[in-house]
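Make up an example, fold above all:
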Amino acid sequence: MPATPDSSLHSGLDVDLPGHVERELTAFLAERREEAERIDESFARAVDALSGFVLGGGKRIRPTFAWWGWRGAGGDPDGPEAPAVLHALSALELIQACALVHDDLMDDSAMRRGSPTIHVAFGERHRTEALRGAPERFGLAAAVLLGDLALAWADDMLFEADLPGAALRRAAEPWRAMRTEVLAGQYLDVLTQARGDESVEAALRVPRMKTAAYTVERPLHLGAAIAGADRSLVDAFRRFGADLGIAFQLRDDMLGVFGDPEVTGKPAGDDLREGKRTLLVALGLEHAEASGRADAARALRAAVGDPELSEERVAVVRELLVDLGAVAAVERRIEELRENALAALAAAPVAEPAATRLAELAVAATRRKH
């Protein structure tokens, strides 16, 4: 059940939404930790790792978009349903946790938010405790199971919220679609890398399913559905969310190559080492081929997927991507997508202050540094 709100909850929701989401997650995970301890102390320790991951960082952007979708469809932050809505929408952070834990495993990423990833941490735990078998396999198994647990608990958190039955039934459509879409996107990401698909089309198809749908589009849809929005408003939110979600991922791809590790919490160039077939790389290769820069194309292909890629070679790739015009082209695409999203928002009957806040979020999400 949702945590009991204090007397300041209603008046502060719009102002300190991430803080309220954090408190909902903290209370929910504490309850689940007690259940885990009754099962087995070793399982409770594993749950501690998942809780630490969920509460150890993140911008809470998905519940934020969902909240403003609810508000934009007429949701009242001072109404009796607001605490239950907050609880339900906070479940999106557990979907995010599932996606990140599994994504880090599939990409063999060592760091997330400045700390070892779940599979790496459990592999190290295996070594420290001198357990039998291969540490890497133990870490893999733990990450799969904890990611699955986060997904299961996301369902619990949503459907245990004290919302009217009709609101929960409306929420089921975007929730069901979102879970399928994010897993489809993750599979397409793995498949694209395995195929070595360098096309611009593939580089845009993956973020559309993997990130845009569950980062902006479906959270907005979820919030609006809970509020009882009509189809025209839901469709407008989805248009806004689809374009903005892709722009959000393109910014993430830029940060994966050009971001400051002290800010992003991941080593510089990790996306290159992991073999990510991003739009940035696809356009770099396309521009290199079109301009007859075979040397540049070879250098880019050699860098993408090289786990031993040095910082010096990362710097060379950065220079190539700038010189080939790929960076400028991605920045233009981000700007176009943001403007398209804002146009869809402006044309929709979105209640204030949600319309203004969503426009602000669109700018912040696409100009961020981490």
In short: The chain has 18 helices and two strands. The domain at 1-163 is CATH 1.10.600.10 (Farnesyl Diphosphate Synthase). Confidence is low (pLDDT under 50) at residues 1-11. The beta strands are 111-112, 115-116.
